[in-house]
Write a structure and sequence with these properties.
two-stranded parallel sheet, 71 residues, alpha/beta, single chain
Amino acid sequence: GDQLKLIVTDSPEGGAYQEGVIDTAFLKEHLRTLAKNFVYLCGPPAMTKEIIADLKNLGIEDAKIIHEDFD
């Protein structure tokens, strides 16, 4: 079924989200799931730009990457 995975870089102790950095290793680990679904990103422009580049290098189509930048 559908799955929403929320990843945050920093959260309060005991938060309900998976915490960590979304890097190439993380993306490779979740590639099977990512390739089948849309990827939604929200964050500072430098972060989203880097993750989008990694996703494209891993073969994720532009049409499946949706992002919003904030400062």
